[in-house]
Amino acid sequence: MKFKAFFTDDGISLLDKRFLPAMDKVGRVCHVFLTPTHAMLLHNLLGATAAGPDGGGPQCVAQFAKDLLFREYNLSSRNGNQIAFSVEVALLHRALRSVLAVHAQPPASGDAAGAPAIQVRLVNKLPAGSRSATPFLTFETKGARAAVVQDVPISRPLSRSDVERLQAALDAAKDLPQTLVQVPDLPQLQSLVDRLKNAGDLLTVAVTQYGDLHLQVSTSLVNVGSEFRKLRVIGDRANAPVGDQNLTATTRMDMAVERGEALSVQVNMKHLVKSLHCHLAKPDYTFYVVFQYFIPGTRLADKSISFYCRLPVLDPGSS
What we know:
7 helices; Checkpoint protein; HUS1; nucleus; HUS1/Mec3; alpha+beta
């Protein structure tokens, strides 16, 4: 089992500035899944995903084409050239920032410009006082005045059966609702949810085929919510009934559900708050809750990056 590669400048910047901060807010530990074509950061796809009364928390998938993150990408294993392991996101980010600091050192007067690329590889090392080797993800680079090697402890690579389970969970996580609506302003939505979370622990989320997003908290003491209307729709869509314009938001949504033109589910408020921290990854567009990126300088979707979150549904409602 071998993995060795060099980061591209764009790739390491994406991880440092956007995706690792976002993943760290969602959960302490993630899986790194390396395949011949892609590198992925996966949160909560195995283990406790379906455990407990709250469903185990949100799932997050950040997938990158290997050429976006790496060059000289060498990967081999007996599991179909796939390697997966778990790692603490904060430790991974700390090591990355440490090697970036050395890598960015300006050259001394008279030295050639340009620091060596940052290398990452899987290694087994014998820690002091231990009799058995431990796997690490090792980062190495040289700066103008120093060199650095950062070892990040990881789990033992997943077995073939666990890699197959991870791939099956990943395939299942790709199933999307038939209708998605574009959130106009993700930080604005996060601010709204931060206010709603003080009213209750459960949130009803409803989406119509004509672009309405409805968020509501209902308890024995309070009934409060908010509505976004006429949002951009992807997937199944319909024309909004003219006669519904003067009705309340709740009545309109109930009628849309009855007509089969809306989906309504109940989710844990804490899970939604966690998933909305993914705005730190700075998506160009957000479709509830799928994130879309553009090729820099264009309005064309960048298919080398995909990022999405799934929340466990506590009450399937009309879904």
